[in-house]
Amino acid sequence: MAVVPRETHDQWSGWVRSNVASPFRKRALKAALGALAAGATPDQAAIAAKQAEDKRANYMATSALVLGVVSAVIALLVGGLAILSILFTFASAAQGRHSRTQSWQAWTGLALALAAVPIFVVAHLLVH
């Protein structure tokens, strides 16, 4: 892959800072510069950057949903391990909420993870 000039890198770094949500800037810049190095037009590079942002946001939204389900199930079954899963859910939801098409998954996963706390308490009280 060809290397882009430093001036181009700096220019696109500024564009990415202005147009891409902070958790996704590194991936977006890499995608834009990769596209430019492959001979893409600036418009195509911008599209590549936004696609990289969307892809990561969608992934993190789905991750939050899955981790939220896991948190709720673990809280119901075991309890203590749910804390780690809940923390990962918060981290995924923080990025996944930026998804244009799947942000609902991040919010649902977060809600499920939060629901895991009272589920754990109730399950723990019923067992003891």
Polypeptide structure, described:
With 128 residues, the chain is mainly α. The protein has helices at 6-19, 25-37, 42-77, 82-96, 103-127. Helix 3 packs parallel to helix 5 (103-127). The chain starts with 5 loop residues before the first helix and ends with a helix.
Percent strand equals under 5%
What overall form do the CA principal axes indicate? Answer: rod-shaped
First-last Cα distance: 62 Å
Category by helix and strand content: mainly alpha
Order of helices and strands: HHHHH
Average pLDDT, rounded to a whole number, is 88
Work out the helicity level: over 70%
Q: How many strand segments?
A: 0
The Cα radius of gyration reads 19 Å
Main beta sheet: strand number and arrangement? none
User: Stretches where pLDDT falls below 50 for ≥5 residues?
Assistant: none
Quaternary: single chain
Number of helices: 5
List the helices and strands and how they pair.
Blueprint: H1 6-19, H2 25-37, H3 42-77, H4 82-96, H5 103-127
Helix pairs in contact: 1-2, 2-3, 3-4, 3-5, 4-5
Which features does this protein show?
mainly alpha; 0% strand
Short description:
80% of the residues lie in helices and 0% in strands. With 128 residues, the chain is mostly helical.
